[in-house]
Design a protein that fits this description.
This protein is an alpha/beta fold. It has a single domain (7-32, 44-158, 176-323), classed as 3-Layer(aba) Sandwich (Rossmann fold), CATH 3.40.50.150. 32% of the residues lie in helices and 22% in strands. It is built from 14 helices and 10 strands. It has helices at 17-25, 42-50, 55-64, 77-80, 83-86, 105-111, 124-136, 153-156, 165-169, 181-188, 195-200, 224-234, 251-254, 280-289; strands at residues 92-97, 115-121, 146-150, 207-213, 235-246, 261-263, 266-268, 274-276, 293-305, 312-323. The strands form 2 sheets. The protein has a 7-stranded mixed sheet. It has a 3-stranded antiparallel sheet with strand order 6-7-8. A hairpin with a 5-residue loop joins strand 7 (266-268) and strand 8 (274-276).
């Protein structure tokens, strides 16, 4: 995302979020962000209709930025989420939700040679681009450790080959008697994607990690609980969900005009894509409400300088780690 720090400069506490909150809420030019928003009022009905899930808007977005230059490889994530590197389990499975062109996938593949990454996105075009970028890298055996698949999470949920109904309902630690790693590997043999799994009728048995990196904010607020529950259902017991997304009072939120506000903290860009901005309580309610145990949750507050005009920008992201109970 624009404004994010490179690996060498990475830090997360340049300013206090409460100080930013005081500055913003006392500034009259930002008053339109705090006006009451009534979902069922006549004046809001047209705005709410615009906030319906629009995967086509994201598909158009990815086509416009298909060169891959818009997103930079997110190497800082390995410092934020060292579990992705420290996990030495053979064929440790990571599900990257909303993988885009692979900016999160590549650091994971580089950092952990044991990791197998399943990356989903609503755009088949950007998945092809992600596959090209990953295969062109010098990552060890990357071609056989990255499995992209098309999925519009708010609309369809995850496919059953990722975790079948039985896996979603039972403790995966006790299921090795009926679904062995060898059977899964046989399904994947000779295939660059997960088509063979879908055809065989079995599943990969869930994943060890789910990463939600600037993805949940693109989903309408009312559909977030279902999306989070889907992530919970495909995680193995004890597995971690790693979260990073836009925080309340981030610079990009304050740039939105009054007419772009389509929810209490939800905004519609001119290209038709959505952006939500999270406070800690909202994130906590979403994940704990789905059954997760909160391990870490805080604001990440970064000051960056616009190289073109020299202005200082205060960026706010939410960092979180949530665990599925064993």
């Amino acid at each position: 995302m624009s404004g994010e720090k490179g690996e060498a400069e990475y830090h997360s506490t340049d300013f206090d979020w409460e100080d930013l909150r005081a500055d913003v809420e006392q500034d009259p030019s930002f008053a339109h962000h705090f006006l009451p928003f009534y979902l069922h009022s006549p004046s809001s009905s047209s705005s709410c209709s615009k906030s319906q899930p629009d995967s086509d808007a994201w598909k158009r977005f990815h086509i416009r930025h298909s060169s891959g230059k818009f997103f930079k490889e997110r190497r800082y994530l390995l410092k934020e989420f060292p579990e992705l590197v420290s996990c030495k389990e053979e064929n440790s499975k990571v599900l990257e939700v909303g993988c885009g062109n692979g900016s999160t996938v590549l650091p994971i593949l580089r950092g952990n040679e044991n990791a197998v990454v399943y990356g989903c996105d609503c755009s088949s075009e950007t998945l092809e681009r992600a596959k090209e970028i990953v295969e062109a890298s010098n990552v060890v055996a990357c071609k056989h450790r990255f499995h992209p698949f098309c999925c519009d999470l708010p609309v369809t949920g995850f496919p059953s080959w990722l975790a079948c109904n039985r896996c979603r309902g039972l403790n995966l630690q006790t299921q090795k008697t009926w679904l062995s790693d060898a059977r899964v590997n046989n399904c994947l043999a000779g295939s660059d994607d997960s088509d063979s799994l879908k055809e065989s009728g079995c599943c990969i048995g869930g994943v060890n990690f789910v990463t939600l990196i600037f993805t949940l904010s693109a989903i309408p607020l009312r559909q977030m609980p279902m999306a989070v529950k889907e992530c919970f259902s495909v995680l193995k017991p004890g597995g971690l969900l790693l979260f990073r997304d836009y925080g309340l009072y981030d610079m990009t939120m304050l740039r939105f005009e009054h007419e772009q506000r389509v929810g209490p903290r939800e905004y519609l860009r001119s290209d038709g894509t959505l952006s939500n901005f999270f406070c800690l309580d909202t994130v906590r309610d979403l994940f704990v409400g789905a059954g997760f145990i909160e391990r870490e949750l805080d604001y990440c507050c970064i000051k960056s300088v616009n190289r073109r005009n020299g202005k200082s920008m205060r960026r706010v992201w939410v960092h979180g780690k949530f665990q599925k109970p064993v």
